[in-house]
UniProtKB/TrEMBL annotation:
Secretion signal span: none
GO biological process: methylation
Natural source organism: Megalops atlanticus
InterPro entries found in the cross-reference section: Methyltransf_16, SAM-dependent_MTases_sf
Gene3D superfamilies found in the cross-reference section: Vaccinia Virus protein VP39
Listed name of the protein: EEF1A lysine methyltransferase 3
Domain of life: Eukaryota
SUPFAM superfamilies: S-adenosyl-L-methionine-dependent methyltransferases
Keyword Metal-binding: no
Molecular-function GO terms, alphabetical: methyltransferase activity
Amino acid sequence: MNFEGDHEKCLFPVDDGLFADTFSEESVYRFGGEEVMISQVFSANLGVAAPVWDAALCLCRYLEQQSLDLKGKRVIELGAGTGIVGILAARLGAEVTLTDLPHAVPQLEKNVLANMPPSGWPSAAPTVAPLSWGLDQTQFPRDWDLVLGADIVYLADTYPLLMDTLAHLCRDGATAYLSSKMRGEHGTPGFYADILPQRFNLQLVCHDLAQNINLYRATLRREG
């Protein structure tokens, strides 16, 4: 991994054919002094929301290794899936809201409950809420410090919806960290090269050559 200085409703697949049978798996991930236990329910119902994706682990390692001061910061995660990224941020002191489509909410709630530290959450217990991009983001506030997303850029039809959601959530100055496997067949490189820069200032902060994962920092361009 190379750190470079400072520098899914109908459009989202659920039954994507990945899992013909339903089974669960529990895994423990360690990031510095933090240990996160994640339950993954592999089923056609959850589809791509079920696994812990490599891009999520990349973002977790970045949060840990860069020693970002998350204490008291207001953080929202998009397409949280298992919740591993947001849960780690909460363990590191952030006030976190985990969001995904409604079918993923029970998995998120289960993982939040399983990861409460013995002494309690440093700032506040993470909250879980459904959020469908492009439809109900305006029901969420805009006073975030960080917006996090891991492997949420994979379906071209959702890119305009994601852009509208990011623009709303970052309106008051939030910084977005987006970690993605750069899948050419899904148009992921084009999203970062051509679509996101139309409204955001973008900086590549981490590149994992072996996993073909890029991590970007993005801030909304000021109009006028």
